[in-house]
Amino acid sequence: MPKQKTRSSAKRRFKVTGTGKIMRMHGLKSHFRRRRAPRTKRAFDKMVELGPTNRRRIRRLLPYGL
User: Fold this and answer.
1) Rounded to an integer, what distance in angstroms lies between the CA atom of residue 59 and that of residue 11?
2) Predicted TM-score of the model (pTM)
3) Are 16 and 65 in contact (CB under 8 A)?
4) Does residue 23 have a pLDDT over 90?
5) What is the Cα–Cα distance from 22 to 60, expressed in whole angstroms?
6) Rg (CA), the chain
């Protein structure tokens, strides 16, 4: 049986925690950043859990839970 390949784009964008949650980074970090409050910009630095809508789709791109 051939091995499955991990999508390189997904490998860079998502991290899987030890408990199996898929974490993603916030958007809105580079464009028009000057107009945002410093507190808002700091909030974008943290990773957040992926929503249930996309979870199955992204899990398929990361077969080995990187």
Assistant:
1) 11
2) 0.77
3) yes
4) yes
5) 12
6) 15
